[in-house]
Amino acid sequence: MEDLSYYEILEVSQSADKTTIKKAYRAMAKKYHPDKNAGDADAEHKFKLCNEAYQCLSDDKQKSIYDRYGKEGLQGMGGGGRQSSGGFEDLGSMFEDMFSGFSGGGGSRRRQNPADMDKYPLDMNVDMTISFQEAIFGCEKDVEFRYKKACKDCKGTGAKDAKLSTCKQCKGQGQVYVKQGFMTFSQTCPACNGLGSAPAESCKSCKGKGYEEVKETVSIKIPAGIDSDNRLRVSGKGNIGKKGSRGDLYVTFRVKADQHFQRDGNDVYIAIPVFFTQAVAGDSVTIPSLTGELELKLDIGTKDKQHFTFRGEGIADVHGHGKGNLIAQVNITYPKKLNNEQKELLEKLQDSFGIAESKPHEGVLDSAIDTMKGWFK
Predict the structure, then answer these.
(1) What is the pTM of this model?
(2) Hey, which CATH number is domain 114-146+214-256, 3.30.390.10, 2.60.260.20, 1.10.3720.10, 3.30.559.10?
(3) Which of 21, 92, 216, 289 has the highest CB neighbour number within 10 Å of its CB?
């Protein structure tokens, strides 16, 4: 979820209006709210991401900047906090409407103990490059990766003996305020990353990171039809949190290009070189496909770049929705030079068609030439 766009986090399209965005945010916030997921660090993290996404997309100015430049474009605005005409927008009122029945009926939520919060997201991603053939037919591959695991000595806090003290920069609030001109914005405290607490002294075992990295290999089955930028989820193989809960591993694929076949979704194209006499005569040509050989029957007078479609001979849909098509594109080739015998044979062939058919320019262009001559009289 960390790598998703703000729209993907809230599960809305980029064209969604404010009402749709707000409705989606309320649903996501309710799902991941800490009062409903006590002790679940992953839910807490996702809740923060939903909050961050909503604060950006609900503000016209920030949304416009984000759509054009992404998160980097918002850095100059103090990290994405926003301000309304009445001061800092308090999202607590929205939570009170949604969670009035929790925590004894009060609308305010409890701040989670920083010692219980993970320093990293539990879900993680690795990239994998596979061949065109592996993507088309599917395969089984080993994935080597390194996942994070909370340091035992500091219990994942990054602090010696797990001792934390109030952050001096934000005074335990987890937020700092930045002035830009006449406006003030809030942003996550860079010293404690929003936890409100910081190590009194760094843990020597993990050098203050709060985690160790462990190497692991897992075997995955790649389904037929996988394409570049597709992701495969491997449940329970992500990072491990302080309390032992483990996230998911996501594998993002990049498919190498093939020398002969070119993919377009589930369709696949192949260029077929054809000599001009074959195109004129409507010859038959044996061509390769993904599963064997096919017979391509050319039309008499086949044109250059003409397409011939073989239904169902393309790539299997990764979700099981049938197969695409194979499209053969004819590329007509011509001789680079002719000997006297070849020239004579071609002249005889041309004469055999008669002047009307073999010299179509005559008659059509004669009138144009006569008209042009009239321009200079």
Answers:
(1) 0.59
(2) 2.60.260.20
(3) 21
